[in-house]
Amino acid sequence: NTGSYNIINRSLKFYVDSSGRVLDIVTVESGSGYGALDKLAIEAIKQWIFEPLDGPASKQWGVITFRFMSQ
């Protein structure tokens, strides 16, 4: 139950290089038109660091959904 809160979901597709760093290639996969929330989610994901991959250099991708709640 969210009560009087609005829930806004923002899904981002992002790429990670073999060292675990998020690349600058981040796109909004789904959203509700709040540009400021897009920017916050993109800035947050770019700060994440993942476990480095062993083996040849490559990049991986993923999609994550950020959930924002507002009153």
Features:
71 residues, alpha+beta, three-stranded antiparallel beta sheet, 1 helix, elongated
SSE layout:
Elements: E1 6-17, E2 22-30, H1 35-46, E3 59-70
Indicate the proportion of strand residues: over 45%
Largest sheet: 3 strands, antiparallel
Q: Number of helical segments? A: 1
Quantity of strands, as a count: 3
SS-based structural class? Answer: alpha+beta
Could you tell me the radius of gyration in angstroms?
Answer: 14 Å
Mean pLDDT: 88
Low-confidence stretches: none
Taken in chain order, the helices and strands follow as EEHE
Largest sheet, spatial ordering of strands: 2-1-3
**End-to-end span in angstroms?**
14 Å
Question: Can you give a write-up of this model?
Answer:
There is one protein chain. The protein has 71 residues and is α+β, with helices and mostly antiparallel strands. Helices cover 17% and strands 46% of the residues. It contains one helix and three strands, in the order ββαβ. It has one helix at residues 35-46, and strands at 6-17, 22-30, 59-70. Strands 2-1-3 form a three-stranded antiparallel β-sheet, covered by helices on one side. Strand 1 and strand 2 (22-30) form a beta hairpin. The longest helix is centred in the middle third of the chain and has 12 residues, at 35-46. The model has no long low-confidence stretch (mean pLDDT 88).
Compact description:
The chain is an alpha+beta fold and 71 residues long.
